[in-house]
Amino acid sequence: MDSRIEQFEVKMEKSLDGLIEEFTAIRAGRANPRILDKLKVDYYGTPSGIQSVANVSVPEARVIMIQPWESSLIKEIEKAILVSDLGLTPSNDGKVIRLVFPELTEERRKDLVKDVKKKAEAAKVAIRNIRRDANDAIKKLSKANEISEDEVKSLEDQVQKVTDKYVTEVDKAMEAKSKEVLTV
């Protein structure tokens, strides 16, 4: 791999990692504590992640249990969950908060799969944009007579191979997530 191409491969990898990160937030009927990752609560004036102010566990397949280290945080955590777009209603007994994931309807599963495909397509577009940037950089080198025509062809081929590799990875991630969402 040419060192001039590596910077573009790193960007493509970041696009794939971002997609996989987004997929963890899509709930598939099973409790996954990662859906709480983006939520912040006010902890003595500092926005903090729920995992940093509470013990988060999954006692059953469709239940997340949040046990704050300080009972004063229960209301804050509940508020953060209610104003989020998780679509879950927390219940608390004064000591712990429980999030029960309802069984997903067939229609909701299909909507989630559409969302998965939309996010995957956005990642592919980002990867193709990076390919375009790489090819533009190669053309600039060519115009400045810094590389030969053969090198241009070789570099463009390398860029295309890297692009194909990451598009394939995006497709695999999309298929895996879609399958997970549709599994009852």
Verbal overview:
With 184 residues, this protein is α+β, with helices and mostly antiparallel strands. Helices cover 60% and strands 15% of the residues. It has helices at 3-25, 50-53, 73-83, 106-143, 149-182, and strands spanning 40-43, 46-49, 54-60, 63-68, 90-92, 97-100. Strand 1 and strand 2 form a beta hairpin. Helix 1 (3-25) runs antiparallel to helix 4 (106-143). The protein is elongated, with a radius of gyration of 22 Å. The mean pLDDT is 86.
**Portion in beta strands:** 15-25%
Helix tally equals 5
User: What order do the helices and strands follow?
Assistant: HEEHEEHEEHH
Shape: elongated
Instruction: Quote the average pLDDT.
Output: 86
Low-confidence runs of at least 5 consecutive residues: none
> What composes the largest sheet?
4 strands, antiparallel
Radius of gyration: 22 Å
> Separation of termini?
43 Å
Helix content: 55-70%
The secondary-structure class comes to: alpha+beta
Spatially, the strands of the biggest sheet line up as 3-4-6-5
Number of strands: 6
Question: Secondary-structure blueprint of this entry?
Answer:
Layout: H1 3-25, E1 40-43, E2 46-49, H2 50-53, E3 54-60, E4 63-68, H3 73-83, E5 90-92, E6 97-100, H4 106-143, H5 149-182
Antiparallel strand pairs: 1-2, 3-4, 4-6, 5-6
Outline of this structure?
The protein is of the alpha+beta class.
